């Protein structure tokens, strides 16, 4: 039966197996998302459904991908990526010729590869560090493969598609090794694992939609510590950090928050 005790057992089992702590996520939204899966499977309990998906590796991988909301595409919200190219990265390059960049919650890798393309074009011959992390190990494996559907590359300019991708059978596109090789992919839990420091730029976009307000504040505070003075946090187009001043940031531009230099 899908009651509070059943939900508590489900959360305990999920955390034990995956280290995902649903207490840090908005409960009504997560119950609704997971409840939809339970009902589609014609089951009557969260815990029972979890036991079932754990018995099948592929089904479990699909469940985790659904749970962690792995939706992404290259140059998502192109106008914001335009600001990254024209305003943000030039500002960062005035203080450091080699940037340390983190794509946090990188999903299928499209964001990290988009960054690699930008940096290659803006600073030819310079190798920047681009770290890409995600909670979902299966999705990291997909990101490392670097093969994408037409929908995932729909925001790419045709000249970039032709230059940096190889067309494959079945309307798939594989990113070339010159871009793939510069990304460092790692498993990382944003709500639990320690953060590296010394980043010039952190992107965390379309990741926190189901986080509690407390979890978001802690995450943005941890990002603040991870940034260099003058470093910038770039968030999603629906994820404005309303209390950015309280957390120590200044507003560089809408959806770009800067750690003060002083």
SSE topology:
Blueprint lengths: L3 H15 L8 H14 L5 H9 L2 H11 L10 H16 L6 E5 L5 H13 L6 E6 L2 H9 L1 E3 L8 H7 E4 L3 E4 L1 H4 L2 E5 L11 E6 L8 H14 E9 L8 H4 L2 E4 L2 E3 L4
Parallel strand pairs: 1-2, 1-7, 2-6, 7-8
Antiparallel strand pairs: 3-5, 4-5, 8-10, 9-10
Helix pairs in contact: 1-3
Can you give keywords for this protein?
three-stranded antiparallel sheet; about 260 residues; alpha/beta; 11 helices; 10 strands; about 45% helix; about 20% strand; seven-stranded mixed sheet
Describe this structure in words.
- The protein has 262 residues and is α/β, with parallel strands linked by helices.
- It contains eleven helices and ten strands.
- The strands form two sheets. It has a seven-stranded mixed β-sheet with strand order 6-2-1-7-8-10-9. A three-stranded antiparallel β-sheet has the order 3-5-4.
- The longest helix is centred in the N-terminal third of the chain and has 16 residues, at 78-93.
- The model has no long low-confidence stretch (mean pLDDT 90).
């Amino acid at each position: 039966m899908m009651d509070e005790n059943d939900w508590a057992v489900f959360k305990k089992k999920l955390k034990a197996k995956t280290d995902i702590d649903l207490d840090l996520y908005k409960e009504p939204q997560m119950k609704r998302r997971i409840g939809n899966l339970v009902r589609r499977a014609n089951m009557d309990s969260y815990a029972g459904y979890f036991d079932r998906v754990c018995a099948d590796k592929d089904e479990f991988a699909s469940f985790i991908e659904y749970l962690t909301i792995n939706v992404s595409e290259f140059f998502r919200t192109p106008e914001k990526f335009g600001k990254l190219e024209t305003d943000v990265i030039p500002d960062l390059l005035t203080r450091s010729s080699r940037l340390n960049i983190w794509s946090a919650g990188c999903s299928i890798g499209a964001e990290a590869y988009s960054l690699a393309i930008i940096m290659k074009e803006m600073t030819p011959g310079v190798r920047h560090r681009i770290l890409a992390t995600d909670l979902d190990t299966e999705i990291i494996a997909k990101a490392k493969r670097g093969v994408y559907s037409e929908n995932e590359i729909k925001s790419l300019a045709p000249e970039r598609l032709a230059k940096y991708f190889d067309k494959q059978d079945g309307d798939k596109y594989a990113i070339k090794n010159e871009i793939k090789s510069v990304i460092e992919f790692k498993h990382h839990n944003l709500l639990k694992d320690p953060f590296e420091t010394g980043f010039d730029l952190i992107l965390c976009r379309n990741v926190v939609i189901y986080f509690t307000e407390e979890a978001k504040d802690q995450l943005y505070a941890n990002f603040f510590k991870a940034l260099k003075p003058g470093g910038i946090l770039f968030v999603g187009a629906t994820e404005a950090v309303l209390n950015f001043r309280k957390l120590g940031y200044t507003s560089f531009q809408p959806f770009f928050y800067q750690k003060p230099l002083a």
